[in-house]
Amino acid sequence: MLHALLTRRLALCLLLFSACVPFSAPLPAARVKFLVSADGLYRVSAAQLRDAGVALDGLDPAALQLLRGDRAIAIRVVGEGNDLAIEFYGQASDSPYSAFNVYWLTWDAPRGKRMREITVLPARDTPQRTFQDTLRVTQPTLYVPQAASAGAPWFWQSLSAPMTTTIPLTLVSGQSAPARARVELWGSTLDAVAPDHHVIVLFNDTRVADETWDGQGAHVVDAPIPPGVLRAGANTLRLIAPGDTRANADVVLLRSIEITYTRALTARDDALTFEVGPGNYRIEGFSQEDVDLFDITEPDDPGRVANARGAAGALTFQSDAPRRWLALTPNARRRVARIVPLQATDLRATDRQADYVVITSPVFFDALEPLVQWRERHGLRVRVVTTDEIYDEFGYGAESPHAIRAFLDYAYHRWASPAPRFALLVGKASYDYRDYLNAPNKNLLPTYLLSTLHLNQAGSDHWYVASADDVAQMAIGRLPAKTPAQLMTLIAKIVTYESAKGDAAWRRRALFVADDQDAAFETMSERLIGALAPETEALRVYLRTPAALAATRQALLEQWNRGARIVTYAGHGAIESWAAGPLFDSNDVGALSNGERLPFLFTPTCLDGFFYHPQQDSLTEQLLARKDGGIIAGLVPTGLSLTPAQEKLGLALFDALFRARAGTIGEAIVHAKRALNPDDATEREVIDTFTLLGDPALRWATGEASQGVDAF
């Protein structure tokens, strides 16, 4: 009966999930990718292509084709052989996951898409010398996920009234005509009084807006700038939060500023992008007479004006309709940020098979070899895949967690049977995908940020293997290493743990720690103790009063150092600490000396598995990386959740570990999550955010044959 039910669920899962997660179509085999970071006209020379491994001898220029995703991009091909050059209009990335847009150059098309050659009429009468331009400025340096809609958590700065901030703005060739300022804000605080917020906007010391509003959420100040106020070059915009609303707190977040103004048709650095309606125009300021003009109204299909003529550093022409144009000299062509040759893979081959799929940042590829050998020695068929390979084959070259999810689903459904059981992610993650902060913790292998009941952007590795009905297709875990040396430490701990005898006395102990802030924490702990195997000894370290903090911490350290098979903490938590005081935090990790007596950690709390912070390591990561002790792995939260749902997960987990005798940690977690209801928001939050930091194939019953649980 159970087997039939699981079979039906998996069949439904396959049907629905395959329909809602499309597989990206494979690109041609002959290709290199261009990485582009800004809008502009790009030129790639034959020498650059040769350096990237493109064999130009005998190559038919007509076969060159440029793609962005599955869309053909018009290019201009000049010359051939050693004199060949390719020009195209590239656009900046609009992805939250990468600062680079990716264009693929292939050379096996019958005929690639070419840039149109167009003509314009010469200017008549007196040409216009100005146009309307918009300068948009922002500096994403403040991450406030709870104050933003999903996918837009980045702000420039916070104004906590009373406060004034002055922002310099450079308006190239600005004219003293009327203009507009658009300031995008977010009301962060909420009070019983109305209004909550008051902001005054000054432009060059002229008051242009004075607005009050109520509540939390987006607010846009759209204000006219009188003639004569704006000037060419340096300007300032001042935001004043006077703090006179009588609210207990008036905090406003600044996202961006836009200034729409009249600008002279004057090139800067021998280039000018401008949008105009029908009429006659004159562009000046070029350092040479050789000026090209491109119609970039359709940026993927631009047109080059064949009859553009420059003279005396200027260009005149007639626009027949509203269009966006780019005028520039040859020296103003841009260079692509990088040219990367294709790494051919067999990831789409349907005869591939693996039990254990390792997805890694390329920097860890060599350091993984001892773990690969260890898993193969114990009967698992292992496949190691780099993120670059996955991005190229399943994301059109662009960095994205969606490509990783598509690959894992493809491997599960399309590779030869039996499907993979385990997925191991190797590398640190960061919510700062685009490295705005230039912080020490880089995004080596991303997690997916999703919106949960209590946190707007919570990291979820479960999302990578979730099917349409939230059943995990395989067990997943992460080794959040930052360096190859750190990864080697984690691997050494795994091998040592699984090599040890399974009947050691410390493996028959379970340590339970509870906070004193809510009676529910001790109650949960006692219920989990009731789910232990009969031969397991429960050790209790409960914080009963704040006065007992120091003694309780000392007892916790002593019991941890004695060794236990599992450590459970129930209570309030933060990224680097447990309980108020705190009871246990990053400063205490150095006091652990449990050596090879490494527990599995389960923490029904909040945030102590927050492995994707760009500037600090979560408590669990520090415990995992500890060389002389710490933990072997942990099922820990990346977000916020409620005690009843946490307890339900814990009871199901303990049932898998101590009653069903799960063969591996990862399979026990799959079993436990399937006991929760994904249609209940509080339980769905736990499913999504409780993450295994550790190897999902870690053998729980060390020294015994892997029995597994009915999880797949």
Structural descriptors:
Jelly Rolls; alpha+beta; 712 residues; six-stranded mixed beta sheet; Rossmann fold
Brief overview, please?
By secondary structure, this protein is α+β, with helices and mostly antiparallel strands. Helix content is 20%, strand content 30%. Among the domains are: 92 residues, no CATH class; 135 residues, Jelly Rolls; 194 residues, Rossmann fold, CATH 3.40.50.
- Span from first to last CA? 14 Å
Estimate what percentage of residues fall within beta strands: 25-35%
What share of residues is helical?
Answer: 10-25%
Overall mean pLDDT stands at: 92
Largest sheet: 6 strands, mixed
Structural overview:
This protein is α+β, with helices and mostly antiparallel strands and 712 residues long. Among the domains are: 31-116 and 335-340, no CATH class; 130-264, Galactose-binding domain-like (Jelly Rolls); 500-693, Rossmann fold (3-Layer(aba) Sandwich), CATH 3.40.50.1460. 20% of the residues lie in helices and 30% in strands. The strands form eleven sheets. Strands 35-34-36-40-41-42 form a six-stranded mixed sheet. Strands 4-3-7-1-27 form a five-stranded antiparallel sheet, with no helix packed on it. A five-stranded mixed sheet has the order 8-23-22-26-20, with no helix packed on it.
